[in-house]
Amino acid sequence: MRLLPRQVVAVMAGDAFASIWSQSIEHYKPGNIGFMHYNGMTRLNALLEAIPDELVLGNADVVKKVVMGRAAVRGFVDACRGLGNNTPGLEGSIVFDLYHGLKALPDRTIPDTVGGLTFLADPDLAASIREDLASVETSLRDADWKAATVMAGSAAEALLLWKVQGLDQAQVAASGAKQNPKAPSDLLEWGLHHFTEVAGELHAIQPVTAKQLRIVKGFRNLIHPGRAQRLAERCDRGTARAASAAVEFLIRDFS
User: Fold this and answer.
1) b/e per residue, 100-125, with b = 16+ CB within 10 A?
2) Rounded to whole angstroms, how far apart are CA atoms 84 and 115?
3) Strands (DSSP E) along 86-135, which ranges?
4) Contact residues for 27 (Cβ-Cβ < 8 A; gap 6+)
5) What secondary structure does DSSP assign to 151-213, as a single string?
6) Given this model, what pLDDT does residue 162 score?
7) What mean pLDDT comes out for the span 88-105?
8) Is this model's pTM higher than 0.85 or not?
9) Residue whose C-alpha is closest to residue 190's, from 147, 222, 230, 158
10) List of domains in the chain
């Protein structure tokens, strides 16, 4: 099981732990947590263990609160199992600090494997695409094939839009009309297929990249449930991996 910090925060603030805090944890006045709270603290320990270590990051104070809090809860639960009613109380302030530390944690982080996209001069665009790529990697890890497929397709479109906008616009318009005379003149209204064919014809991407993108272009329909149903399309490991590979090919071409 994998939980995000915000999910654990929501559970801690909910009714499931009300007997421990005696009120909303947001207004909790820390006291000692004793053996009588063993069951609730066992559940809390399980939730904390489900937060991936790579999400425990931030400033030193936040990390300290979370790391020490998790260790304290784990130690308290272990002590309860061995000592029962003789278990020393756990200072409620530790759990209170833990809660606020969890609130400050991100729900995802950009893996080291996601490149910096240094070829993009616009830092906001680079950050946005890196966020998409991080979502792709997280979705692949969690076997969320639809999310990985759609997000990779989105990142591919964003990269192609950036590239095509930087080309000679007269050539882009001519190529676009050649590919589809009815295509909109506004590049923001183009789809993955149109970007692929124009970028390919103008040698902005390698032939193998264009080939991979052609495989992927139909997957973008999956973001529209009605169209996906009509076309009987579905996401699986193959669509996710193919879409991810197409993005990697684009990054290689542009780097």
Assistant:
1) bbbbbbeeeebeeebbebeebeeeee
2) 51
3) 90-91
4) none
5) HHHHHHHHHHHHHHHTS-HHHHHHHHHHH-TTS-SSGGG--HHHHHHHHHHTTSS-HHHHHHH
6) 96
7) 91
8) no
9) 158
10) 5-103 (no CATH), 123-254 (1.20.120)
